[in-house]
Request: fold
Amino acid sequence: MEDRINQENWQAIINNDTAYDGKFIYAVRTTGIFCRPSCKSKPPNKENVRIFQNAEQALSAEFRPCKRCKPTGGRLPDHEWVAQITHYIDMNYRESLTLDILADMCHGSPYHLQRTFKRIKGITPVEYVQQTRITKAMEYLTDSDKAIADIAKAVGMTNTPYFVTLFKKITGHTPTDYRQLNSNKHIMEVLHSGSKK
Ligand SMILES: [Zn+2]
Reply:
């Protein structure tokens, strides 16, 4: 997969912006070499640049990694590491998931996990866990008659009052209000589509 170069990526390349490392890599057709956005090598001609999402894609397009910025690194690129972590959370949000547990599972320190995850996703791992749980809870509230406490448990939160507080913080509604609102909305849609016929 290959993306056309956009203004944002181009700015990152010419500014050697480290914030974009792990978000994409760029290859230069004329040299056959690919780099991290932060590479201090001479800026290429824009029309010769190809953007890839990661080093693997550039390698499979037969570009070679730059010796200076070492875009393949010795270890997993951060964005892939973070993708593995989010996948793990998506699959295991029902379990107890703290930063320490996630760091352990992903073979990193909690500090490194926190920083890397936030840089790539814009939120912390724990915030991502919370969002995943609340999104699931929203589905349960609209698609099932489960009691609030059962829904809380089903999304990995055994403390119902805390679940209610977090739900309200993220959605702006209590779970009960949210369910009510959506059932009303559903009725309105049914009525509305009925009246059109
Ligand atoms: Zn480079």
User: Anything to note?
Assistant: Strands lie at 25-28, 33-35, 49-52, 64-65. Residues 35, 39, 41, 66, 68-69 surround zinc ion (CB under 6 Å). The radius of gyration is 23 Å. Residues 78-123 form one domain.
